[in-house]
Amino acid sequence: MTTTTAAPRFNLYWFASPQTFYPLAGKLVPWFAGLAVVLTLIGLYIGFWVAPTDATQGESYRIIFIHVPTAWMSMFLYVVMAFWAAVGLAFNTRLSSMMATAIAPTGALMTFLALWTGALWGRPTWGAYWVWDARLTSELILLFLYLGFIALQAAIDDRRRADKAGAVLAIIGVINVPIIYFSVKWWNTLHQGASVSVKGSSMATTMLWGMLIMALAFWMYAIAATLYRVRTIILERERRADWVRELAAREAIK
Amino acid sequence: MLNVLLNVIRRDLLLAVRQKADVLNTLFFFVVVVTIVPLGIGPEPNLLRAIAPGVVWVAALLAAILSLPRLFANDFADGTLEQMLLSAEPLPLIVLGKAAAHWLVTGLPLTLMSILFGVAFDIGVEETSVMVVSLLLGTPVLSLIGAVGAALTLGLRGGGVLTSLLVLPLFIPVLIFGSGAVGAAASGVGYAAYLLLLSAFLLFALVLTPWLVGIALRISVE
């Protein structure tokens, strides 16, 4: 295992093995984390000082700069998680399943933040922290699905079985994502419809830019957190492999 | 093909009849849960009329979940399940048979029992019949989706709680449209759409879940 030759010219599959992905992820984490910090600072600056006050909602709308990006990420991360879980189930690739496991906590965090900020936003605009509205309820179900995935994997000691069982559950749960996304169109809900679409947006330009930059910031954060977590998972699961032992020995000398 | 299905159903029904307590306990649980609600909330008739469909549906959901471990656990314990996985007959068909038998001993009795609650909560003949139809369409979906959860958590420690954690979120659409149908009937709006959606869920579950349960069982037993 020690004869790690140089990577071939360009081959993505080279990084499909935990051993080769571990150092790559280690190199990438600081970049994504740094980008997340910079983008958050820019986004929050625009959100607090540049974007104009909303005509109908006053200053309270400014939570949009956290609420919308986290809500987007909560749905997107679930699809990504289900995708990697499905790849792991279909091709029996260890790293894909580890990625799915690593994404779940970040996804759950994003869902929680979206619900929490939504409650804080709902109070001044609707007069209630929570209403049993189609979009709110379906987002809450998404949180339950994340927690179910995490709980199922935690309950199974055999990692291979945990990966596969989690994958089946994640794939079933994907049905919920389009339901959340279209809930404001399908039902008459209190939650406002989407302000941003492919065709354009109904918001002031600076508001839109602030929101998009914050979305990008959360995206970078999610990548950094997932890669950091997947490194830990790799070490934990591959602890009996020679390369991990060598790595541990080298770290110990330092 | 049909023979396999009928044989599995017949076998599971026979087992259920031999262990009557299991079946009756689920039904008894359903009755107790529904009965407890008016005692907790108070006997105000209008309020009870308004919440009756929701109460009956939630109780049906809980009863279905409580009875899920019975679906595969015994067969897993005595090795029958392994034989089923090894058999040359299509696994989804066997699973479908087991889910059907599960529905016959839980969902169907609950549905019939709910007529009594329609009377007890005084929700009217039309609403009661809509409730019965909605349960008739909805409870098989609960058995089918529940089978996926039961298969995934087979043999795990704390399996019962975990199963409900996995399965309850997936039951929510059935609950919403099931009790929604009765609510719509009560307020005089058309309830056909709700029942049609429930039928769609049933068809969807009939096609997809036996196959998913098959995959989950192979993962859990391998």
CA radius of gyration of chain B: 18 Å
The chain-level mean pLDDT of chain A equals 87
From the spread of the alpha carbons, the general shape of chain B counts as: globular
How many strands, which pairing sense, and closed or not: the largest β-sheet of chain B?
none
Helix content of chain A: over 70%
Major β-sheet strand ordering of chain A: 1-2
How many DSSP H or I helices of chain A? 8
Helix content of chain B: over 70%
**Residue runs with pLDDT of under 50 for 5 or more positions of chain B:** none
Describe the structure.
Chain A is mostly helical. Helices cover 74% and strands 2% of the residues of chain A. Chain A has one domain (35-52, 61-253). Chain A has helices spanning 18-50, 64-91, 94-126, 134-155, 159-173, 176-186, 205-237, 242-253; strands at 196-197, 200-201. The longest helix of chain A has 33 residues, at 18-50. Chain B has 222 residues and is mainly α. Chain B has one domain. Helices cover 86% and strands 0% of the residues of chain B. The longest helix of chain B has 30 residues, at 192-221. The two termini of chain B are 25 Å apart. The model of chain B has no long low-confidence stretch (mean pLDDT 91). The interface between A and B is medium-sized, with 18 and 20 residues.
Features:
heterodimer; A: 254 residues; mainly alpha; two-stranded antiparallel sheet; 2 strands; 74% helix; B: 222 residues; 86% helix
Layout of secondary structure:
The complex is a heterodimer of chains A (254) and B (222).
Chain A: H1 18-50, H2 64-91, H3 94-126, H4 134-155, H5 159-173, H6 176-186, E1 196-197, E2 200-201, H7 205-237, H8 242-253
Antiparallel strand pairs in A: 1-2
Chain B: H1 2-18, H2 20-41, H3 45-66, H4 69-77, H5 80-86, H6 91-105, H7 107-120, H8 125-152, H9 159-186, H10 192-221
Helix pairs in contact in B: 1-6, 2-3, 2-7, 3-7, 3-8, 3-9, 6-8, 6-10, 7-8, 8-9, 8-10, 9-10
